[in-house]
Amino acid sequence: MLEHGGRLRKAALEYGIAEADWLDLSSGLAPWPFPVPDIPLRAWARLPETDDGLEQAACEYYGAAQVLPVAGSQMAIQLLPRLRRVGKVGVLSPCYAEHAEAWRRSGYIVREVLEQEVDFFLDSLDVLVVVNPNNPTGLSLTPSRLLDWHSRLAQRGGWLVVDEAFMDNTPHLSLAPCAHQVGLVVLRSFGKFFGLAGVRLGFVLAERKLLKLLAEQVGPWAVSGPTRVLGQACLQDTEGHARQRVRAEEASERLAALLEKHGYKPQGGCALFQWLTTERAEALHDFMARHGILLRLFTHNSSLRFGLPGEEADWARLDQAFDAYAKETR
User: Fold this and answer.
1) What separation in angstroms does the CA of 285 have from each of 208, 302, 307?
2) Short-list 301, 267, 263, 252, CA closest to 281
């Protein structure tokens, strides 16, 4: 079973610190959840309807021709391999590990490739998976470069799958407006930008035939009625979008400055996290955990992902923990 951020209960048990006393920076989620609207009783009492306006709201928000709502983009990651015959899949790595795992479980030959290796291997692949902006490195690729890769794949019946889970702050880099093209699949996560990961909502953007096939795999009523009401309200809150983008960008820059102040210049990041590679990653992760601050540790490349603190007290706590770590390691 793959490890993920957000496993606060496990950390609480391991370190003997009550859940309420933790500062959880492990998940890359916006720490300012959008307000939850009033949910009509009928949304709880009736089966979900697919003509309630959610799809239209998502199309307008993402700038896409059509979308398929799913119970979190993780659902799509696991189901997409069912829609092709077994072949060769490239995954631009390092990235969210569930992508490679899902294709491997379905019998595909998976090659994890570095950015500079894609052009060399592309013509031998049936599918290329890219996370953009990348998680955890924060690498962002231009639409023109991605569309060039898509064109080369599509000529042979291949796919380009682009996971845009962290794209909301940079919509000008999104391939959503191009997702009607055959062989292009774009995944969007709802919970990260809107700070509501617990509702489990995501969207697949692709051409109609592929979305129909995927919908058959997803099955009916995959997204609950209350989630559909909540999702539509958040997607239509344009003032909230602007406010969230500004404070996420400012917080991300502040986080990078805080890390650099303590001698840890980030190697990458985006609006919702910063990424640090250091030979001290495991020791720093353990120290922070012993002080009730949970980070995301990647042991394979000795790196850490820092989510955004949400309150001034959280910023002060992180700053003070770095001071304490410096004293302990002198």
Assistant:
1) 45, 10, 13
2) 301
E strand residue ranges, the chain? 23-24, 67-70, 88-92, 109-113, 127-131, 159-163, 184-189, 202-205, 268-270, 273-277, 293-294, 296-298, 303-307
Show Cβ contacts of residue 223 under 8 Å, excluding neighbours closer than 6 positions: 48, 54, 69, 70, 71, 201, 231
Token pair of 167 as six digits: 């794209």
| Token digits of residue 151 | 């064109």
- Give every CB contact of residue 217 below 8 A, 6+ residues apart in sequence: 79, 82, 83
302 and 282 in contact (C-beta within 8 Å)? yes
Q: Can you name the residues that pair with 296 across neighbouring β-strands?
A: 305
pLDDT tens per residue, range 253-308: 999 999 999 999 999 999 999 999 999 999 999 999 999 999 999 998 999 999 99
| Burial (Cβ within 10 Å: 0-12, 13-18, ≥19) of residue 247 | middle
Cα–Cα dist 134/145, whole Å: 15
Cα separation, 161 vs 115, in Å, equals 15
- Please report, for residues 31, 40, 55, 182, the alpha-carbon distance to residue 26 in angstroms, rounded to integers and kept in the order given: 11, 33, 30, 36
Question: Is the entire prediction scored with pTM above 0.85?
Answer: yes
Structure tokens at 79: 């189901």
Check residue 330 and give its pLDDT: 77
